């Protein structure tokens, strides 16, 4: 068996250069310090994305992207196909876990200032991947064509429509018409299974290449101590520890899918009144709640317009953080960016909690 394996290895090595890849992996070192724990969330995000890809492909085997068949195809998958309900639950829960872990990864990089030279583009590609993950969640939510997804999408696509000049165009572009219809479903399906995966592949490839090129960053607080830094080989030591994180995520995912399977609900009826208390997914709740709390008019500007513009500028600010907070910018500005990160995290948690506690009809 060993001889056969060796021959296979030699065959592949001659064609793919496996020995070169192995040599690179063996030379790669990972710093070990009191913040090393945060390194594992990047790999965990990648693992959950892989689960998304595999379960998404399985769902495509039965899903039919039209308003007349989408709900029935998902219902058939959940009731007639063996373990179909489990595949759909794993897909839905892994999407939620991936975004949660991605947020943890995002804030850990922000607080450790791992975006500084020469990792500016690594950060920017990571912010782009976070935006793509949220877009996956938004477009995928409508695909079962159930009541909650239909009306939540109607509210969600209405938000960019409040912008002056370009708002109506953006709303029509998202919906494929004046309202959420079968055209919207087909459009979201195309974006969800073709455009977003293509963009994610490009940005993920760039992000992983840059992580390999620059290695793991060492936090300033650790570097300032001036002590000799301990390292471990990436292969196999760090990779084995990474696997523990992947298996932990898999255990949580399996428990959620088995004990709390995702329900389908009622089929969407565009002519029915919207059910009371429509809410977005948890990762959009702080945005939704912010728009609800802004007064109708602020200094003569419509509140929703002000909120949507502020969200856009906030996202742009996060994207260019490495260009604003550099090593030469001084300790005072550095502390200001850290305070900004703390305030942003507290704001997101507080508004999300208020969104779930407050009466949904207010």
Q: Which key terms come to mind for this protein?
A:
mainly alpha, 362 residues, two-stranded antiparallel sheet, 4 strands
Using only C-alpha atoms, the radius of gyration works out to: 23 Å
Main sheet attributes: strand count, strand direction, barrel closure: 2 strands, antiparallel
Number of strands: 4
Q: State the distance separating the first and last CA atoms.
A: 68 Å
User: What is the succession of H and E elements?
Assistant: HHEHHHHHHHHEHHEEHHH
- Overall pLDDT level: 92
The best one-word shape is globular
- Strand % is under 5%
State the helix count. Answer: 15
Poorly predicted regions: none
Structural class: mainly alpha
In which order are the strands of the major sheet placed?
A: 1-2
Helix proportion: 55-70%
* Oligomeric composition of the shown chains: single chain
What can you see in these coordinates?
With about 350 residues, the protein is mostly helical. About 70% of the residues lie in helices and about 5% in strands. The protein contains 15 helices and 4 strands. The protein has helices at about 1-15, 20-25, 40-60, 70-80, 85-110, 120-140, 145-160, 165-175, 180-215, 220-225, 235-260, 285-295, 305-320, 320-325, 330-355; strands spanning about 30, 230-235, 295-300, 300. The strands form 2 sheets. The protein has a two-stranded antiparallel sheet with strand order 1-2. β3 (about 295-300) and β4 (about 300) form a beta hairpin. α3 packs across α11 (about 235-260). The longest helix is centred in the middle third of the chain and has 33 residues, at about 180-215. The radius of gyration is 23 Å and the shape is globular. The mean pLDDT is about 90.
